[in-house]
């Protein structure tokens, strides 16, 4: 076995490239289709954080530079119909990519359209997989480059290795004493049904899984550059198995599907010998200018490792840093929004997927991502003043705004309530015996009022 950054001449990646591009198209389709029903309620004209108002404010403060800081076709016509049109066109570009039609054009269109949504969607589009999709999607424009296998492998290497490295460098004791997964299945943003049972698994098994996590993130990525191909196949198998395990035990949107697609770049065409009758033509036009483009992106990615990448490209998300669960939370706080007509009797709003009713089962929603539910998990880790959008959400509920209400379960109020407050609860999984007895999934304890009460009438 020897290590080399460039593959031997007898190893080709035509099939790999085509299979990956089709999977990338699928990921884009999931991403755009997932955002479509949510985008107006999140950042539309009457949404929680109206994007049009944000753009107007930025243009006032920065002038023409605002277009560079927030690269988005939404500038052309900041309306709700354009938000939906961007999602629709994104789905079309994703389908073209899936079926191998005008591949580079479809890849560029999908990237620009998704960047347009991510740029204006803050804080609801600030997730690692949004950034990862933009990097992977931009690289796809250079389909046909001989350097593409290296670029994608290096992207996968950075994603995995940096995710492992931040766990050890964060100083978090639970990664260092190997107890992290004793808490993860309870405290992750949206636990799914299997997460409940793993939380009650023996401590030795959970600690073993923690060791396996660190091994896969810190050691296995180096094997992506190994030859012969058998070593890379083993590495890809371990990484894929790891992603399947994550997908089975949590709802992480399209992250797992995208990472599995990236793992394909550890496999050359010979790895697909078990499909002898499958013949996919290579993407036409292998030009040196493509190699120059990919080489430049690899160089920028290396600079990013040392925080030396030029800042003027940050807004285009073509290189990023990565890291997952650097600090393992050991307890779970849930925010429950309540409304009242008399400041005495309070009724809770229910979210589609985040924990609320202690008897409601755990959801399976990935690769769809309920972005408001996710953002409520992050808000619970902090305070209201650090989550500027929370007050806006409460204000929209006081107005009974129909677009925002679409992001929640049906409202308990026929008309707008007079007051809103948010309570903080400590949530833990109910013991299996209790769940079997009365169907209780969660046990909770009131911690106090997290925000409010707020009332439009009182002016609070």
Short description:
By secondary structure, the chain is an alpha+beta fold. It has helices spanning 14-35, 39-43, 51-62, 65-69, 80-98, 103-120, 128-140, 148-169, 173-176, 181-187, 193-199, 203-218, 229-249, 255-263, 288-305, 371-380, 389-398, 402-405, 432-438; strands at residues 2-3, 226-227, 332-340, 346-348, 419-429, 442-454.
Helix/strand layout:
Blueprint: E1 2-3, H1 14-35, H2 39-43, H3 51-62, H4 65-69, H5 80-98, H6 103-120, H7 128-140, H8 148-169, H9 173-176, H10 181-187, H11 193-199, H12 203-218, E2 226-227, H13 229-249, H14 255-263, H15 288-305, E3 332-340, E4 346-348, H16 371-380, H17 389-398, H18 402-405, E5 419-429, H19 432-438, E6 442-454
Antiparallel strand pairs: 1-2, 3-4, 3-5, 5-6
Enumerate the strands of the largest sheet in spatial order, edge to edge or round the barrel: 4-3-5-6
- Overall residue-averaged pLDDT value: 93
**End-to-end span in angstroms?**
69 Å
**What's the overall geometry?**
globular
Q: What can be said about the biggest beta sheet?
A: 4 strands, antiparallel
The counted number of beta strands is 6
Structural class based on helices, strands and sheet pairing: alpha+beta
Order of helices and strands: EHHHHHHHHHHHHEHHHEEHHHEHE
Low-confidence residue ranges: 1-5
């Amino acid at each position: 076995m020897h290590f080399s950054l460039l593959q031997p001449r007898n190893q080709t990646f035509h099939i790999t490239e085509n299979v990956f591009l089709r999977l990338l198209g699928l990921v884009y389709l999931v991403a755009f289709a997932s955002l479509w029903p949510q985008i107006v309620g999140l950042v539309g004209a009457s949404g929680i954080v109206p994007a049009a108002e944000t753009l107007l404010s930025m243009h006032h403060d920065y002038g023409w530079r605002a277009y560079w800081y927030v690269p988005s076709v939404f500038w052309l016509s900041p309306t709700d119909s354009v938000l939906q049109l961007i999602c629709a066109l994104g789905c079309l570009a994703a389908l073209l990519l899936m079926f191998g039609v005008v591949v580079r054009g479809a890849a560029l269109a999908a990237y620009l359209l998704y960047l347009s949504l991510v740029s204006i969607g803050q804080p609801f589009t600030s997730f690692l997989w949004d950034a990862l999709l933009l990097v992977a999607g931009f690289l796809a424009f250079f389909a046909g480059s001989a350097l593409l296998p290296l670029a994608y492998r290096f992207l996968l290497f950075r994603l995995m290795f940096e995710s492992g490295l931040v766990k050890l460098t964060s100083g978090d004791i639970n990664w260092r004493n190997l107890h992290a997964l004793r808490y993860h299945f309870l405290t992750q943003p949206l636990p799914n049904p299997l997460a409940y049972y793993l939380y009650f698994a023996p401590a030795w098994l959970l600690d073993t899984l923690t060791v396996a996590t660190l091994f896969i993130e810190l050691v296995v990525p180096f094997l992506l550059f190994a030859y012969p191909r058998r070593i890379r196949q083993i590495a890809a198998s371990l990484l894929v198995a790891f992603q399947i395990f994550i997908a089975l035990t949590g709802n992480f949107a399209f992250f797992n599907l995208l990472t599995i697609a990236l793992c394909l770049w550890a496999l050359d065409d010979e790895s697909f010998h078990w499909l002898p009758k499958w013949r996919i033509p290579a993407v036409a036009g292998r030009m040196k200018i493509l190699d120059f483009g990919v080489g430049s992106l690899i160089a920028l990615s290396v600079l990013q490792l040392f925080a030396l990448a030029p800042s003027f490209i940050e807004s285009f998300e073509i290189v990023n840093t990565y890291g997952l669960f650097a600090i393992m939370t050991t307890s779970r706080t849930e925010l429950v929004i309540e409304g009242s007509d008399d400041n005495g009797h309070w009724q809770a709003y229910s979210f589609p997927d985040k924990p609320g009713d202690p008897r409601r089962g755990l959801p399976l929603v990935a690769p769809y991502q309920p972005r408001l539910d996710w953002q409520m998990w992050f808000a619970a880790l902090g305070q209201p003043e650090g989550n500027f959008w929370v007050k806006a959400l409460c204000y929209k509920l006081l107005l009974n705004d129909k677009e925002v209400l679409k992001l929640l379960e049906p409202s308990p109020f026929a008309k707008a309530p007079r007051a809103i407050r948010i309570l903080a609860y400590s949530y833990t999984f109910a013991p299996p015996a209790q769940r079997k007895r009365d169907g209780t999934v969660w046990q909770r304890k009131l911690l106090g009022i997290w925000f409010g009460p707020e009332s439009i009438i009182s002016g609070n």
